[in-house]
UniProtKB/TrEMBL annotation:
This is Fatty acid cis/trans isomerase. The keyword Signal applies. The keyword Signal applies. Pfam families: CTI (PF06934). It comes from Pseudoalteromonas phenolica. Residues 1-22 form the signal peptide. Keywords: Isomerase, Signal. GO terms for molecular function: isomerase activity.
């Protein structure tokens, strides 16, 4: 029976009046609040209802905004544990806090709903008397959905100022006792926020589920084949010999964010995913998570065990980093770490000054083994600082350019005994800010690390001048070619202002800059932005992380510049850092460029472009063509040559769906913000070079946070869309284009197009698929 809107309105009026009369005395109405047992076993009516009917709606309508660290009010609806935990008024991302915040990681920092209540989280489900009336009236989730049912959005229009879609907006996060006041002050703020209401059939499903007590069940457990693989891997990682124990610690500290799956145990596009975790308990026993801020913090147990924890929540595009493991990967790890000829005489401790510095804690592991291990999954390692907790906003992203390529020094040329000895002798200069833990004093720390970085670069340059004295070896032969088959050897990073993406291949037009990473630099980026970064740290920790990343970016760029002719190196650097502050310019211009000449011949007036071409030729056998911008068919390919005035009007990431017969093709239009320099921490806008903005159109999906969604149902629409895009001159032009072709937040069929977008994404992305996040969806 359809759920009539008139009935919804009656419910809203009834509940508002009822609860208003109660004057927030929910205990009087429904008894005292206490957490409920909501999880039910599989193959029961409640489990079937949740998994088959309720969970898909929550994933498709709620998780698109409430999925991770940056979910409003920390409300993570991606798992039963997150739904039952509820919400918090305390934001995770706070760039002003003077003292580190207590972590609140779901499934890590508390093991029961009551523990979350003790930490200040409030329920979105009814925790009073479990009756049909109470389950609706005392549920923030139901009241929020109901509030939206009575507040339709103006169809395909820009929403008014009453809606705040800014990333750092102040969230109200009302408890049920506060909800009436919230609804009175913000009648527009029902859920989904700033998006159309659920269809009546969907609302009816959630209504019935909430009314009956919101029982939930977990997804199917791992298969027997997957469990057998886990047994093999946990046996390998938890051997008693020192060599394996040190190697397992190293592997864990680089893989702990990955969504691991056994690609030979499950051939489908939706296998079980697992996290590699530290546990107090050995294989064969239930996992007891060692909950520390960082993966290398003191575990306070006699022995750490490395275990595979089943991931049961919704897979989110913005955090999904799939890693396939199989017998071949296991054999590779054994060859790199176990069969290699070296001795581990003792295990390192967990004191911050040791554990935060991989050049000290893992000094006994061969450099070549560590570097090969990182290179094998370079896309995953780089993704860590893109999709890990550091990914949001200005914490680290305004320290990178909007579009650049990444390549790597060959491990055979970066792990000689001389280099290994060099790293051992200079491991103090390679110390990282995590040694200060989560409450840092930024100015004194920055000065200390700047001095150390200067000393390290001087020593590195001196050694390089010896190695490359005649320049004969300073060629693209230095560059790792992926062992002839590994596409991780060439990567592209796209920054989307307050999020970013890394993909395999050299994608897009020749970029402004490029990074060439050696082992020491690659390792430090990981331990700075991933393993060593605490999203709950104080402003000093976040600031020193950003400032230190300046050093690492400059070093990666310098490695690339050193392959240019000597008289071009400083010219290129000066262009990259136009209008930069004098003090930073002094640091940039210190004499850390090589004295050795390049070993390559350049024949044009554009040696940097020539060098890009040489890199592409050198890596051609392994270059991924998945996102080849130059293979996009006409007329859409014309979007790669938009005038800067039109590009300036574009959001960072736009998804375009084009209908071809009964099929849909997907494209991503990426806006690259140009800068005179990226040396300014607080005045990025003042460094913008708007006339130099570029855009790249690629097939498929790049980015996790679509800002605009465009739908083109036929070729006539494609031609008109491209022509109008080229001719845009003003915000009014852009809004007119959106009126004609976009799926705005207020589009009456928004959710149908959202479902289509995700269905197409599944086809394109396969194992990499995850639910997109709509928190950056623009209101224009």
């Amino acid at each position: 029976m359809p759920f009539k809107k008139g009935f919804v309105l009656t419910c809203l009026l009834f509940l508002s009046g009822c609860v208003a009369l109660a004057a927030n005395h929910y205990e009087t109405l429904f008894g005292p609040a206490q957490t409920q047992q909501r999880e039910v076993v599989a193959n029961t009516p409640h489990a079937t209802q949740y998994l088959n009917d309720v969970k898909p709606i929550i994933e498709q309508r709620c998780v698109v905004c409430h999925g991770c660290y940056d979910a409003p009010c920390q409300l993570k609806l991606s798992s039963p544990e997150g739904i039952d935990r509820g919400l918090s008024k305390e934001p995770v991302y706070d760039g002003t806090r003077l003292l580190a915040q207590t972590p609140s990681r779901l499934l890590i920092d508390a093991t029961s709903t009551q523990q979350w209540r003790d930490k200040g989280f409030t329920a979105v489900l009814n925790e009073h008397q479990q009756s049909a009336d109470a389950n609706l009236a005392a549920s923030v989730m139901y009241r929020s959905l109901l509030l939206k049912q009575n507040a339709e959005l103006p169809a395909q229009q820009v929403l008014g100022d009453e809606f705040d879609f800014s990333l750092d907006r102040t969230a109200t996060c009302p408890s049920i006792e506060e909800f009436d006041s919230y609804a009175q002050k913000q009648p527009h703020a029902g859920m989904p926020y700033g998006l159309p209401a659920l269809e009546q059939s969907e609302f009816a499903v959630l209504h019935d589920w909430l009314k009956s007590g919101a029982k939930m069940a977990q997804i199917a457990p791992p298969t027997l084949t997957e469990l057998a693989q886990i047994e093999i891997w946990e046996a390998f990682l938890n051997q008693d010999n020192l060599k394996t124990r040190l190697s397992a610690r190293y592997i864990y500290e680089h893989w702990y964010l990955a969504n691991i799956y056994f690609n030979e145990a499950n051939k489908s596009d939706s296998p079980s995913f697992f996290k590699l975790v530290r546990s107090k308990t050995p294989p064969g026993q239930a996992i007891e998570i060692i909950a520390t801020r960082r993966p290398f913090d003191e575990p306070n147990v006699e022995r750490v065990y490395y275990r595979f924890q089943h991931q049961r929540g919704t897979v989110l595009s913005k955090t999904h980093m799939p890693l396939a493991i199989n017998p071949q990967k296991l054999a590779r790890l054994k060859a790199q770490f176990i069969d290699a000829d070296y001795v581990v005489s003792s295990l390192p401790g967990y004191a911050p000054e040791v554990a935060s510095n991989p050049f000290k804690s893992f000094a006994q592991l061969p450099v070549k083994s560590k570097y090969q291990f990182m290179l094998d999954e370079a896309h995953l390692i780089i993704s860590g600082f893109i999709k890990g907790p550091v990914c949001r906003g200005q914490i680290a992203l305004n320290v990178i350019n909007d579009h650049f390529w990444v390549a790597f020094v060959d491990p055979d040329k970066n792990s000689s005994p001389k280099i290994s000895e060099f790293l051992l002798n200079h491991n103090d200069e390679l110390a990282l800010p995590a040694a200060e833990q989560s409450n840092a004093l930024p100015l004194s720390s920055w000065a200390k690390y700047a001095t150390r970085q200067h000393e390290y670069l001087n020593a590195k340059t001196k050694l390089a001048n010896q190695v490359f004295a005649d320049g004969s070896n300073l060629t693209t032969d230095l560059i790792w070619q992926g062992d002839g088959h590994n596409r991780n050897a060439a990567l592209t990073v796209f920054r989307h202002f307050d999020s970013a993406t890394v993909v395999k291949g050299f994608v897009g037009q020749p970029p402004k800059t490029m990074w060439l990473l050696d082992y020491a630099l690659f390792e430090r980026i990981h331990y700075l932005l991933v393993a060593g970064f605490d999203v709950y740290g104080n402003v000093g920790h976040q600031l020193i992380t950003r400032l230190y990343m300046d050093f690492l970016r400059l070093e990666g760029e310098q490695n690339f510049i050193n392959l240019l002719p000597q008289d071009e190196r400083q010219k290129v650097k000066n262009h990259w850092y136009r209008k930069s502050h004098l003090s930073l310019s002094e640091f940039i211009n210190r004499k850390t460029t090589l004295a050795a000449p390049t070993g390559m011949q350049f024949t044009t007036a554009e040696p940097k472009l020539e060098l890009y071409t040489k890199f592409k030729q050198h890596l051609q056998p392994i270059l991924s063509e998945r996102y080849a911008y130059n293979l996009v068919s006409k007329p859409l390919a014309k979007l790669n040559a938009l005038p800067s005035k039109a590009i300036n009007l574009l959001p960072q990431v736009s998804f375009i769906l084009v209908k071809h017969g009964e099929q849909h093709k997907a494209y991503t239009l990426i806006h690259h913000n140009a800068h005179y320099n990226i040396s300014s921490l607080l005045n990025e806008e003042g460094q913008r070079a708007y006339d130099e903005d570029t855009a790249t159109l690629v097939p498929g999906f790049i980015g996790d946070y679509p800002a605009a969604i465009w739908y083109l149902p036929n070729s006539e629409h494609v031609h008109s869309f491209v022509e109008n895009m080229h001719s845009m001159q003003s915000e009014a032009d852009y809004r007119a284009l959106k009126q004609q072709f976009a799926i705005r937040r207020s589009h009456p069929q928004f959710w149908q197009y959202s479902d289509l977008l995700h269905e197409v994404a599944k086809q394109y992305k396969g194992i990499e698929y995850g639910v997109f996040d709509y928190n950056r969806l623009e209101n224009r």
